[in-house]
Design brief:
Blueprint (H helix, E strand, L loop, with lengths): L1 H21 L10 E12 L12 E12 L6 E15 L3 E3 L5 E3 L5 E19 L9 E21 L2 E6 L7 E11 L2 E8 L8 E2 L2 E2 L3 E11 L1
Antiparallel strand pairs: 1-2, 1-13, 2-3, 3-6, 4-5, 6-7, 7-8, 7-9, 9-10, 10-13, 11-12
Amino acid sequence: MANRLIFVLVFLSINIYAQKDSLQVGDSYWEDQLYINVSYNILDNQPEEVSKSGFSFGFSGGYIKDIPFVKSGKMAFGIGLGYGFDSYNHRLKVVEGEPANFQIDNGITNNKLVLHNIEMPIQFRWRSSTVNTYSFWRFYTGIKLSYNISNNFTYDEAGIKIDISNFTEYNKFQTGLILSAGYGTFNFHMYYGLTPIFKNASLNGNKIDTNIIRFGLSFYLL
């Protein structure tokens, strides 16, 4: 079974490169891509009482279908599907209830929020590529839709680990603006969340409107 799988992968790779080599200048082309994002994460618009959060990070990856709308292929739409993982060190203690709320408690440690999301990036894509050029300038912008499949708040309190899974007030459906720009394999990317991450959460009676900002590097694999 393993030998058959290796044979199929090698055959497909040879076939793809053969198709690329057969393209001539002026032919239309698509740049379907695998993507990987590595990011530094920020919880923005936090309550005034909250000090800066600790180091937070994330990564995501998936596949983008390229749909050119000019013959040169330099402008296109991209529609993708992928998976995202995010880890946040934050300063809020989750207090479950109806509705749930938060407290500030300097006595707790290892306070983290871990997210697993399904993502759908939708992009307008401009690039300086041609059918025979594989390193080029690119500028991709658009929106990213995400659906949270799992969220976990964990912290240590008096030597006891508290784990709160699938917090009801976490906003499962979120939308954000995305930007990716660069040359060749390495590209800068940024995400700005338009949707607050909580639906009905408060601190000292005030609603929490925290949103997510990510920035880092994108890698595109043809």
